[in-house]
Amino acid sequence: MFLHILAHNLKYRVVQFSYCRSKETISRQFNYVLRAVMKVSKEYLNFQPCTLEGAEANKWRWFERCIGALDGTHIPVTVSPDERPRYRNRKGDVSTNVLAACGPDLRFIYVLPGWEGSAGDSRVLRDALRRQNKLEIPTGKYFLVDAGYTNGPGFLAPYQGTRYHLNEGIGNTPQSYKELFNLRHASARNAIERLNK
C-alpha cells in the first residue's frame, strides 16, 4: 500500500476503494511505514559524493564556505472557501509556501512544506530555524538567499538597490563591485531557481 501510494501519487480516498480499508487505517499504516523508513534511512541510503566541474564549479568558487542556496516557492493548492484568504499569496493565487534549500550539486538539503501562501518567506525561514527538525547551518557556513531575506549569520543576500540580474550577452557588464558581486551571487543562486520551477 505504501509503495502504491508513492509510486502513483494517490490520495487516501482513491486507495480506500482498492484496498477496502478506511482512510484512517490507510493514513495510520502509511505513516507507520514512513516512520520506519525514516529510521533506517541513514543506514541504507547512501548518497554518492558529487564534484562540480567546469561552469558549475566556476559559479561557486567566489563563495567559500557556502553550502548552497535557499528560497521559497509557491505551489498551487485547492483549499476550502473559508481557508482561501490564508492561502492567497501576494499575486492573488491560492498556494502553499514551501521553503527549499539545495547544495551546489542541485541536491535538496532541506524542504519545509505546508505554510499558507500568505506567509512571507522570512516568516517561513524563522519557523524552519526553530522547529524540532530544523534547518541546520554549521558555524562559519552560509546559504545564498535572494533580496527577500536579510543578511545575517548563515545567510548572504545580494546588495540592495543594485542591479541584480545582468545580461552580459548584450554588453551589460557590471559597473561597480556591488554589481559584480550581485552578478556572481545571482549566477550561483540560480541553482535553487532551477529546482523550484
Assembly type of the chains comes to single chain
Distance between the termini: 30 Å
The parts where pLDDT drops under 50 for at least 5 residues are none
Dominant shape: globular
Q: Strand-residue fraction?
A: 15-25%
- As laid out across the biggest beta sheet, the strand order is 3-2-1-4-5
Total number of strands: 5
Biggest sheet character: 5 strands, mixed
What's the pLDDT, averaged over the residues?
83
Please identify the structural class as seen in this structure: alpha/beta
Draw up the topology in text.
Blueprint lengths: L1 H7 L3 H8 L3 H22 L9 H7 L5 E11 L7 H4 L7 E8 L5 E9 L4 H10 L11 E3 L10 E2 L20 H20 L1
Parallel strand pairs: 1-4, 4-5
Antiparallel strand pairs: 1-2, 2-3
Overall description:
The model has no long low-confidence stretch (mean pLDDT 83). The chain is an alpha/beta fold. The protein is globular. It has helices spanning 2-8, 12-19, 23-44, 54-60, 84-87, 121-130, 177-196; strands at 66-76, 95-102, 108-116, 142-144, 155-156. 14% of the residues are buried.
Features:
197 residues, alpha/beta
In short:
The model has no long low-confidence stretch (mean pLDDT 83).
